[in-house]
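Exercise: predict the fold of this chain.
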Amino acid sequence: MLNSARAANLNGKRLLEVDQETLDSGACGFTAEQVFTNNKAFVAYTYDDLILMPGHINFPLHEVDISSQLTKNIRLKTPFVSSPMDTVTESGMAIMMALQGGIGIIHSNFTIEEQAAQVRKVKKFKNGFITDPMCLSPNNTVEDAFRIKAELGFSSFPITDNGKMGGRLMGIISNRDISFIENPSVKIEEFMTPRSQLTIAKDGVSLSDANEILKASKKGKLPVVNEKDELIALISRTDLQKKS
């Protein structure tokens, strides 16, 4: 058990007073220095081995600073780092760690190009923006949409000229567009909602502004495009509702 003070004060009054022998016995817990620094037996601890004992403090919580310097130029608000293991940290974990104030270190069991792509995903991430949506091209078929829906669970797809993120936005399809089509070989261009009928947002839009656009349009998805009309992100109403 950890206890950081042998005596505490509240409004100038001493609340706890113990002698050195009692402190050394561990009856009131041990200090962090005793547990970790003066650990002559080199005992290793797990989370279950330690209990933090609450005590009185004479400073407000907003003065508590647990930020730590990871490197010369990187300071973490929360000193948590996820392991650079291929079963632990890729772009998804690194993003989640960053959202909590920590950091994730991408593992090196990638090719150089793959590792750079993982880092790029993290750097491009904006909370609430889907920066790698599953896209289809106008030449894809209903069968392709059903297959991806069965494999990944997606029911809406932005349509770009090359079927990839970063391509020119051509339209969008949703579950209601394909639900009643019986011929699986029908091309998406024949029933997609075309670009001219879409509500879109421009690059640089804030999440709050995007939410207002979705509310006003009563749409489920909001494509975000750059000045060349290339798809750079997608915003989902359901994702925004989860965050609210």
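Check your answer against the key: The first helix runs from residue 20 to 25.
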